[in-house]
Amino acid sequence: MTSHVEIERKYDVDGDVEIAIEDFTGPDGEVTADEPETWRLVAEYVDTAALTLASHGITLRRRQGGEDAGWHLKLPMAKGARREVHAPLGADVHHVPVRLAELVAAHVRGHELVPVVTLETTRTVRRLRGQGGKVVAEVADDQVVGRRLGRDRRPASWREIEVELVDGSTGLLDAVESRLREAGATPSPSVSKLARVLGDDLPPAADRGSGRSAGAALVAYLRRQREHLLGYDPLVRLADHDDDTVHKMRVAVRRMRSVLRTHSRLLDGDRVAPLEAELRWLAGELGTVRDLEVLTARFDRRLTGRPQDGPENGGLGNARWPGLLAARESKARQALKRTLSAPRYFTLLAAVDDFIADPPFQDRAGRKASRQTPRLVARSWRKVLTRYTEAQRLPEGAERDRALHSTRKAAKRARYTAEAAAPVLGKPAKKLAKQAERLQETLGRRQDALVAQRELTQLATRPGLRVADAFTLGLLLADERHAADAALRDLAPVWKKAAKPGLLNALNA
Fold this sequence. Notes:
By secondary structure, the protein is α+β, with helices and mostly antiparallel strands. 53% of the residues lie in helices and 18% in strands. It is built from 15 helices and eleven strands. Helix 8 (269-303) packs across helix 10 (343-357).
């Protein structure tokens, strides 16, 4: 199984329009076009009967013909980019390869994957080459016939052009687009061939508005975070290194849990408590990997650029201990993937769906968001002010560090609450969220340095430690102490801005 990031643009074009991509000067120099090659491609798309994958922008197909025949899974990432995962055709045409099925398990959740669409495409491809003859992009001119299976419907036929980036810059896409537009092509409104064939069969997109009531605003935010969680799920399963997907999935989970806590007055606590507990569990499972990712990246940055001679020559030596961290991270990543395939995880996803579909609201959830939500945001922010004041009264030491860490967690909850309120409250909520984020990040720098110090101390006390490793760990420990002190010095001006009463006054206004 292989994967890569697909960056492409699609264009509609009339059937009889002449499209010629000849040699031209691109943003990185001269671009030459190979002679065209033509293939016949036959693809069968599979999904649940309810079109769960397609409704989330995911396509899963088995395609024959061309140079990349096989199973293809396409997962949405940023706008115009998708993670494409390939698996061989295999002998069994009716069963999705196990590895691909695992990647969509959070969406499918045990439902059968069945054929929903077939596409027959006559594709004419021209490869574009840049300096040194490397392929920088491919332009595919497709004549397509698509059939919706299980429906008494005439086949759909159309012509479209795909421009896929290979080893070129995004500026090249702009250059090719200008030539296509001159020839009469227009950007396609359809995100995929599958979506074009499915048409009205696709479930309508969920309402992403904020809603007028406080409860509706909460549900809208939870729905967005659920989509983030599901979107990052397959990318986390694919990851074998820190690509930020574990972090982003964890943030989505934390945001859901935070707003459930800060909006507790709107909700039936007996129904919320089990869901919040399970979200805490999942955040912890993701956090085990994320914490090791952060430590590994942190120590790598500290070591970069330092001499590798032994301590007798003033260098760091060829340190062996980073391998211990790497092994722990790899083991934790495998454990996380098992967690994401366990019944407990799928039960949690179902509980989130049920909560969004039928929220356990109290009466006050029906009040206007413009009146109720400012109170929730202000309440969460006052907790930050209180916890920071309590921390400042304590003498330096472990107890004060714990109090500052508690302040950081409160700032994070206040930030997420303000972000959830931003569609309703606008600029005042955005300003408060920004100040909360700055405070959270500054306190986070200190907390990260303290965690790093504990990790380095544990590594330094391992039996049989080499002199070179002990020397390296000692230098890094000194770096982390300086980092913790620097974060504490930076805290005062950040707090001065955060504590201004104007933030709360603007909410009430």
